[in-house]
Amino acid sequence: MSKQQLKFIALFSGIAVSLLLYFINPFGVDKSAAKVLAIAGLMITWWVTEALPMPVVALLPIILFPLLKIAKLDEAAAPYANPVIFLFMGGFMLGLAIEKWSLHKRIALNIIRITGTSGNRIVLGFILATGLLSMWLSNTATTMMMFPIALSVIHVMKENHKGQGSLTNFSLSIMLAIAYASNIGGIATIIGTPPNVAYVGYISKKYNYDIGFVDWMLICTPLAVLLLISLYWVMVKWLFPNRIQSDDSTRQLIQNELQLLGPLSVAEKRVLAVFIGTALLWITRDIINNLQDLFKLDDTMIAVMCAVALFICPSGSKEASNDSLLEWGDTSKMAWGILLLFGGGISLATSLEKAGLMEQLGGWLAQFSGNAFLLVLVITIVSIFISEVMSNVAQVIVFAPVVSSLADALHMNPILLGIPMTLAASCASMMPMGTPPNAIVFASGHIKFRQMAKAGFVMNVVAIILVTLFCWFLLPSLIKI
Questions:
Q1: What pLDDT is attached to residue 116?
Q2: Which of the 8 DSSP states describes residue 220?
Q3: In the predicted model, what is the mean pLDDT of the chain?
Q4: Contact, 183 vs 423, CB < 8 A?
Q5: Which of 83, 168, 180, 379 has the most other CB atoms within 10 Å of its CB?
Q6: Using CA atoms, how far apart are residues 425 and 402, in angstroms rounded to an integer?
């Protein structure tokens, strides 16, 4: 079957699901709510089947909500200018500057140089480097940065292999490690991955409560570190042991790459200064706000300030085309589609909530409300496995109102259900389509589907256990609404 035929099947599947939901009305909702449910079915089906690019599907509320008299045009379009979108845009621009001046490569190579060059230590080096970068950059960008470095290391290992150990397991481990560490590192900070930003934005809008950058890191950074340690153990000690000893040629490759980069350029130093300054402002925002009344900072303002600073600050480069650390032409590489996806998802989620549909889904989850710990566990399990087949951004946007309404009905802190749902959505590890990093490394040819499914299932179980325990024991004392 051709790609075009599959596309038409996916398109008609979405339309069929939409019509069935409207005319059969399985939840017995009123006519207005049935319209919203039908649009949700259409958008989610097209997201899952990738019938159209996800950002294109995210534009449907602007067309269908006014057309079907669900919401006025200005109401449907307002979420596309949500402050959360500008927060993520600022983070994207910082990532572009780091990539443009090769600062990411220098950080990664130095971490690998420090960890050593045996098979296990190289995998550990990639896990640490990828996880650290993904805390501040998107998981997709981080994977794309680390991918060519990993291929180079695998190539050198093959050329100099002396027959000891398993190169197949080494190649498999390093590729899976890049994808999974990108996903895991992203949960450590609010800006590390789109679902975090989406959920923080939802909480801010619904409860008028801003989850602080430091508050998030107090819980999620230790959790991410434990998940990265677990990833290392699962990859090299349990599932795919490589038993490759330290190799001089691999060590030389790392040294050569660092020598080619040379000393820190003026531009790299300035990007690093903006990066550190931005991170410090995010971390100390509450302290600054409490010390004075002249102005009040928030994470979105800081992110946009960072972005503007990158366009203002001269690069110090002798190349005439690089007057500033970032030029507007550099933003052509930015994932603008993600910003549209945010807007469409928020618009859909708002309408679903207004139509009362989220309360009904929350009603199904409420059957587990007799045991609060079991409820957190079930939500974590449902979230992590749904994200294997659905965009984690769209998933969080759709399910945030569900778990929040459920928490309100049970008089629970909504964070106690919402954060495990959000974190679990970033931990999908079984399917190539689960997250963009999974798809990128799967395309390398070093991974078979059953191997990814096997390793991913184990990491899913580890993530479910750690996310549930961390959120259950730490969240109530650290974040209160």
A1: 72
A2: H
A3: 83
A4: no
A5: 180
A6: 15
Long-range Cβ contact pairs of 205-211 (< 8 A, separation 24 or more)? 205/82, 206/401, 206/404, 207/414, 207/481, 209/481, 210/298, 210/299, 211/415, 211/479
**Which residues face 234 on adjacent strands?**
none
Cα separation values, 78 from 102, 344, 439, Å: 37, 10, 32
Query: pLDDT per residue over 130-155, tens digit each?
Result: 898 888 777 777 777 777 777 777 77
**What is the pLDDT averaged over residues 110-127?**
80
Cα(344)–Cα(57) distance, integer angstroms: 8
Rounded (5°) CA angle 214-302-475: 20
Q: What is the pLDDT of residue 309?
A: 93
Answer whether residue 419 shows pLDDT above 60.
yes
Cβ neighbours around 23 below 10 Å, total: 9
Q: Helices 336-354 and 194-207 sit at what angle, rounded to 10 degrees?
A: 40
- Domain ranges in the chain are 83-333
DSSP per-residue letters across 227-257 = HHHHHHIIIIIII----PPP-HHHHHHHHHH
**Given this model, what pLDDT does residue 467 score?**
93
- Position 458 pLDDT exceeds 60: yes
The whole model's pTM is what?
0.69
Tokens of 236: 């090299």
- Fill in the amino acid letter for 419: I
pLDDT at 460 over 90: yes
Residue 324 pLDDT > 90, yes or no? no
Give per-residue pLDDT as tens, 90-103.
Answer: 877 887 888 788 78
Please list, residue by residue across 100-116, b when 16 or more beta carbons sit within 10 angstroms of its beta carbon and e when fewer do: bbbbbbbbbbebbeebe
Instruction: Compute the 3-state secondary structure of the chain and give helix, strand, coil in percent, each to the nearest 5.
Output: 75, 0, 25
